[in-house]
Automatic annotation (TrEMBL):
Compositionally biased tracts (Polar residues): 45-55
Compositional bias ranges of the Low complexity kind: 414-430, 809-834
Ranges where the record places region Disordered: 1-72, 414-434, 779-858
Protein name: Paramyosin
Keyword Metal-binding: no
Assigned keywords, A-Z: Coiled coil
Record's keyword annotation contains Coiled coil: yes
Coiled-coil zones: 316-343, 672-699
Ranges annotated as biased composition (Basic residues): 836-845
Residue stretches spanning the membrane: none
Amino acid sequence: MEQNRANDENAPYAPPRDPRIRPITLKVGAAKGQSHNEPSALISPATTDQATVPSKDQPVSEGPGTPSSETFARSFSGLAENIIALSQSAAEQANLKKRLEATEGSFTKTKKHFNFPSTISYLQQLRRDDNDDLGRVEEKLRENKLRRDELERSVGSLVSSSTSHRHDSEIEIKLRDAKTEAASAKKSALEAQLIASNAHKEIETLKGRKETDKALEERLQYLQSRVDILDTATKAHSTFLSRHTKDIQECRNQFASTSEALARKTDVETREERSSSLHERIRDMEQNLTSIKSRLRSISSGQDDQRYIKEEIHRLKTAGEAYKAALENIPKLEEQLSALQNSSDTSSTIQKLDGVMDLTNHTRSQLDDISKRLSSLENASWANDSATSRKENDSVKEEIKTLSEAFKELQSQVQQVGQAQGQQPAQTSTNDRDQIDLRITVEQLSQQLSALQNVLKAKDDLQFQEMESLGKRLAEHTNVLEKLKADQRVHETVGELSASLQTLARDIEKRQTIADVGLRSLEERYNNLSTETLAKNIITVIQEFYPLSLPALMEQLGLLKTQMDQLKASNTAMQQAQLERMGQRLTALEDHYEKNQGTLKMNNKQMTEKIAALNYQQSALWAHMQNEVQPNIREMTPLRDQLQSLTSRLYEHTEKVQHDITNREMERQSFLRDMQQERDRLNDEIKSVDNSVKDLAEKIKGIDNKIRETNGVTVTSLLGRIHESEKATTEEIKALTRKFEETAQLAKRDISDAVGRLEALEKVKEELASLPLDRLAEIGLGQPKMDTQPRDEHRKRRKPTASSDEEQSSSIPTSVSEVHSSSKSSPSLETDPSSARKKKKRKKRQIEEGTVNSGNGR
């Protein structure tokens, strides 16, 4: 730095410095190598002897657990000195920028004038020097800033580690809260990252499950097709049942008509028989009720399987239909009882029969309620609501209990009626044959009904068994087809391998043939060579290309032949073994394929036969159902209405659930947004608290620095600085005056040289003008050349280059010297060029001396 200062003093031009700014020097290398406990070396001309900088090897006294006060003071003083150095270097940078702007302005002004190249070069050099100084100062600023940052960190760590009384308890509490909040924010961020990683894993698993989802979709489609088939079967079964109920109603009507015809001719025996038949039917109904109770108990005992519930509901439906049929027989019994009422005169029997009719009506209403509840129970089972189904089962149990009690009362009353009528005198039986016929027809009808029920049960069992067997066979066929597909893939791979082996064999054969042909051609050529000269030439060429001898080459050729033969044999053996293996595998695969094909054909034949048998059975059943069963639309319409109402309720329920889900999702998103806003607000508050803490620390540091500066500054140091600044300004003024004097002398010399050159030019012009034209023509100078030459010189002189004065001024004399050298006759022209050369040499010497002096000054 001091050397640069000396160069600046010896420089030809430097702007005046402000006497208030004291020059400073910084040891940058020492500042870089210092630790946090060492202050930066700030050396000024007045304080070089006073400053004591600790070295790297000097130990620093520290406490056992916390930094000592000495290290704290040293680091703090280093920070203050670094801040002072920064401010001084910033002021120096501003001055250098001003000086550079001034030099730039003067350079742009002098650049317009082409007659002062030396000043232009000087200003260029000055601008370069100013740029170098600016770069040096900027580097110093950068290093000081880095050092300040390091010192601030060290001071901050020392202040935070030391338990000083300056820190306020509220700030510490805020910092702790901020740390806890930052930790919680980090935890929440980590949780969010874990959630995101889990979501990515779930997405990957879902992507991996696409194949399984495809298989499940195929399985669902297959099950849906089976469900459709079952729906069609149930529809056909319902139509068959409705037609069957119509047939039963017709039979009942016929039975009623026959019973009405016979009731007119009945007597006491027929009445007793009818009462006994009524007793039997009531017993059957009681047995059915007990079976229903047992089934309901089994349902309520914990069988939650949907299939079992469906089967039980189906059985309850069949039992309910049977009860309906039994209840439909009750009007016939009522008519028979009315006939008995007309025939008998006893009032007690009439009252008892009225009681029986009331009980039958009550039981009918209760059975209707049971059928309705069974339908609701079926719908509930379809909806998979176990709680409601259990409630319905309990209510059905209660109703069945009441029904059983009612049936018992009815049975007792009928027995009383039979006893009362048995006491009456027996009348003559006139229509015994009609009664026997009626019994036979009733028995036949009951047998037909039981047979029909058995047929229906067998049909349902056969349908389900056949469907299950068909499903199993289809699964077996799909497995067999998959195996066949795998076998086809194996065949394809085998074919590809065989093709590749064939191509490899062809390539090997081609290469072998090429090698054999080449060897044969070489042998033939070698054998056909008979002349000694050719053999010698070939031997020499071979020896040049291959430094080995001929027998060695022959041995190598023999070895190569043997190796080729071995390779050929091994290749042929490998090919034959591979072909044999492939042939064996192909034969095994063909046998396996033929076996699988035979089994498939057999299975296909069996399937076709069974399908044909099933089609025949189905066609027979369909014909039977079409012939004997007719659809009952009136009974199906209420079921359809119930289904529509249930579907509408289900849709409404699903819409409500979806609406609730969307509302919950929106609430969750709003809650998350509020949480994010609160988190951002907390982060902003933490940042503001941190910034306020930093500002407080910086203010405290500035106050301490100012206090130390005021304590460190003394009167003697101020006087010394003032004297130093005065000395520096006087030296700079002297240097400036020297530079200006030198430039004035150089300008005077340049002007005198230019005047001498102009005088010499005028003399040359006068001499040339005094010469005749013939002499000028002999010399080689004509009028046009004399006109164009000054014009070219003028052009050269007007070029905006930063050349020296001698290049512009010596252009005319050189051209004139050429003219004098071309002319040999005039002695006056010979003397002038020698003087011009001497002046030129003198000018060069002066310029070299001036550049050397300027370099030393810098």
